[in-house]
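Help needed: design a sequence for this.
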């Protein structure tokens, strides 16, 4: 066969082989690329959908924050703002907030308000008891001991929803919390569709065994290590799946986004048209190559050979061979030119490489020098110049490395910098050395020495470790202080037992360090935890710390009560280690027990004293009452009755003290109710249709505060019962106590009777009762005001005096 035929056959085989190879490579590359792009796009849409869901949850969280930190809601939950229900909790609120239900509950878990709203039918829906119970089971009902906000996804009766639970606080964010606000939206199909404009979104519960097969398959692949799973559902659709965490961190739902496979279809069409184009172009190229090969190949090859020979003789890499035509010969010319260009570029790169390495040498951030034979310094960088204080011109080829080395380290340098020995080892050599700076300072440095191949030079880098050396010295001093501490301090791990044991532990327990290393501490010391080992481990794992009291047994069998603090840390290898610090409080606990017993005896004695004082006052009151029976003068009889009521108010205080669990404080409301009942009975208020209203809250006061307050209330109410309702058949007496700012209290005692006479100054009067009231207000360091606009109203503002605490 002639050259022309061989060329044609060879060209046909080459074109066919290239086409088949390109088809196979295209299939491998493009199909893989299309699958990767399709997966990436699906994950992108899935992530966008999850972001939309998170944005919805964030929007709901913002709405809940606005409502939960609101004075109106705060007082509504506390029962002080009933108008909040009609003014704020209206249907428009559900539409504006884009929520499906709202729930208010107090700290006792009692539901104050719970309502759902169907935004489609615009009708209210009653929240079922199952739903409220599910909210409680998921920990969304907060209380004063657990008032952190919660948000996330929950399942109620198989229905998914996003919820936010916030403590109800004042507008300024202060508490204490009076309850819980819960807002939620149902994850229905309308909301799911709004999460993505690109695909069909759906969800399924994780534990739903009746879910579609694609969900079950996705659940088997999803995990903490694989949070997203993408799979082809068919030739035309692909789906991405991800697990949605619930409020309590558990995996509750699987989110699915289904998309059309337009990327894969586009890739398949592109490959088809690309291969078709290659076949057509191959045939045309074969025709043109044959024509040009017959006519021009030999001539052009001769031109190429002549040009290459000329370039080789002149060694001029900037010259190029002529490129004639557009075929294999032209490609050969181009290849030769590319090779010449590469050689020219290599020479240029070599020059640039030298410059680049010099820049690295200068800008590495580490002091570096290059030394030659005899340790003469040939080159230094800026960092070495800064570290030593010498200029480069003062160092390079003028100073020896030994000129900088401290005298005690000269032998080390000479041993490390033997060129012949180092070259044979062909390794890096590191050591620590001290160098002197220009101003005489000594620096601790870590030096790394390396031989430069094919050169009689070495590169040395210096890292300043002066601060590290000082830190090591400080660490040694701290370790010595720790060892001589009087407290027992030791460390242990669950795998290796006791790791360290200081002198304080040796003195306290009687075991030497050699006896305990490697032993299990709680077995060796027979540790007894008040709440048990499991509780100790749970708190240590949760908070990385445990503090409390425990019991240890010494080497001689003595049980000691320890005040213990145990800190969980990780060493440099990630291993958990517990640092335990114990202090012997055995004697202190014994002393505390004796004090408690003594206090109990004193408390019994005080109760008996209050009981006897109450009895004695009752006897005095009875004597006054018997004496009054013999008196016929009305004014004198009234004075006896007032004195009897005053004694009775004081006796009532001692009776409350005797009955109270806490003898240092008295329940003011209980006391006032008893006092007013006695006064109402004494003045026959029921027959006169006079009623009392008591709003004094829940306050505890000491006897020093309750006694003057009781006498004040006694005098004012006695006056009301005697004079306020002479010409009226009915009336009301009000006693109200409020806590104000700065720990002040406001006591209001009023009646709706005929009013206080305008011509009488209650501050300067001959009335013993009003004189007593004014003096008692001064005793409380308070202020008293009178308001006669509607009946008679006395307002007393006072602060509970600070008395010496009873032992």
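Sure. Designed sequence:
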């Amino acid at each position: 066969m002639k050259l022309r035929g061989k060329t044609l056959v060879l060209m046909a085989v080459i074109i066919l082989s290239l086409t088949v190879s390109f088809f196979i490579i295209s299939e491998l590359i493009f199909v893989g690329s299309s699958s990767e792009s399709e997966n990436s796009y699906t994950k992108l849409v899935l992530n966008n959908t999850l972001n939309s869901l998170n944005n919805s949850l964030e929007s709901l969280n913002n709405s809940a924050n606005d409502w939960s930190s609101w004075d109106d809601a705060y007082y509504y939950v506390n029962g002080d703002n009933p108008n909040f229900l009609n003014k704020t909790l209206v249907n428009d609120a559900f539409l504006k907030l884009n929520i499906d239900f709202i729930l208010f509950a107090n700290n006792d878990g009692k539901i104050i308000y719970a309502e759902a709203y169907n935004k489609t039918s615009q009708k209210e829906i009653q929240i079922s008891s199952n739903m409220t119970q599910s909210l409680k089971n998921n920990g969304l009902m907060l209380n004063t001991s657990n008032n952190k906000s919660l948000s996330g996804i929950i399942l109620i009766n198989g229905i998914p929803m996003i919820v936010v639970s916030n403590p109800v606080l004042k507008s300024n964010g202060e508490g204490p919390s009076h309850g819980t606000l819960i807002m939620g939206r149902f994850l229905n199909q309308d909301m799911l569709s709004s999460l993505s404009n690109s695909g069909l979104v759906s969800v399924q519960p994780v534990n739903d065994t009746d879910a579609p097969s694609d969900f079950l398959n996705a659940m088997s692949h999803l995990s903490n290590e694989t949070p997203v799973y993408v799979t082809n559902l068919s030739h035309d659709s692909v789906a991405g799946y991800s697990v949605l965490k619930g409020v309590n961190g558990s995996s509750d739902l699987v989110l699915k986004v289904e998309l059309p496979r337009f990327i894969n279809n586009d890739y398949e069409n592109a490959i088809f048209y690309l291969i078709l184009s290659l076949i057509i172009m191959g045939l045309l190229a074969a025709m043109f190559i044959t024509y040009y090969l017959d006519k021009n190949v030999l001539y052009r090859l001769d031109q190429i050979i002549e040009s290459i020979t000329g370039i080789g003789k002149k060694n001029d890499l900037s010259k190029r061979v002529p490129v004639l035509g557009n075929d294999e010969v032209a490609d050969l010319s181009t290849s030769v030119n590319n090779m010449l260009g590469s050689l020219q570029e290599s020479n240029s790169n070599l020059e640039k490489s030298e410059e680049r390495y010099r820049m690295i040498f200068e800008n590495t951030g580490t002091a570096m020098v290059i030394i030659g034979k005899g340790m003469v310094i040939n080159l230094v960088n800026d960092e070495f110049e800064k570290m030593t204080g010498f200029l480069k011109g003062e160092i390079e080829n003028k100073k020896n490395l030994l000129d900088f080395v401290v005298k005690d380290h000269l032998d080390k340098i000479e041993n490390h910098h033997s060129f012949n020995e180092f070259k044979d080892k062909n390794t890096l050599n590191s050591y620590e050395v001290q160098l002197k700076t220009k101003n005489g300072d000594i620096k601790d440095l870590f030096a790394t020495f390396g031989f430069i191949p094919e050169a009689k030079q070495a590169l040395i880098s210096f890292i300043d470790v002066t601060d590290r050396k000082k830190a090591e010295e400080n660490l040694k001093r701290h370790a010595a202080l720790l060892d001589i501490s009087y407290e027992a301090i030791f460390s242990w791990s669950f795998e290796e037992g006791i790791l360290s044991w200081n002198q304080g532990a040796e003195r306290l327990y009687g075991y030497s360090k050699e006896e305990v290393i490697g032993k299990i501490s709680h077995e060796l010391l027979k540790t007894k935890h008040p709440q048990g080992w499991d509780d100790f481990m749970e708190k240590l794992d949760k908070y990385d710390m445990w503090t409390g009291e425990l019991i240890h047994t010494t080497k001689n069998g003595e049980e000691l009560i320890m005040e213990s603090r145990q800190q969980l840390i990780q060493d440099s290898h990630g291993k958990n280690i517990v640092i335990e610090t114990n202090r012997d409080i055995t004697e202190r606990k014994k002393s505390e027990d004796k004090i408690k017993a003594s206090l109990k005896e004193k408390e019994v004695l005080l109760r008996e004293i209050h009981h006897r004082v109450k009895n004695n006052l009752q006897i005095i009151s009875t004597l006054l009452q018997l004496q009054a029976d013999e008196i016929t003068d009305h004014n004198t009889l009234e004075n006896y009755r007032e004195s009897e009521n005053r004694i009775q108010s004081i006796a009532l205080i001692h009776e409350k003290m005797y009955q109270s669990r806490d003898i240092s404080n008295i329940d003011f409301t209980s006391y006032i109710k008893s006092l007013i009942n006695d006064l109402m009975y004494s003045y026959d208020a029921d027959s006169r249709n006079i009623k009392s209203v008591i709003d004094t809250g829940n306050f505890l006061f000491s006897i020093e505060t309750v006694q003057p307050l009781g006498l004040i209330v006694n005098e004012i109410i006695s006056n009301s019962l005697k004079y306020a309702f002479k010409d009226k058949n009915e009336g009301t007496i009000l006693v109200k106590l409020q806590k104000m700012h700065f720990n002040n209290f406001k006591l209001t005692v009023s009646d709706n009777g005929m009013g206080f006479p305008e011509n009488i100054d209650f501050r300067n009067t001959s009335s013993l009762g009003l004189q007593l009231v004014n003096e008692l207000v001064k005793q409380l360091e308070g202020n008293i005001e009178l308001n006669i606009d509607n009946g008679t109203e006395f307002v007393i503002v006072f602060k509970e005096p600070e008395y010496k605490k009873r032992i």
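The longest helix spans residues 3-68.
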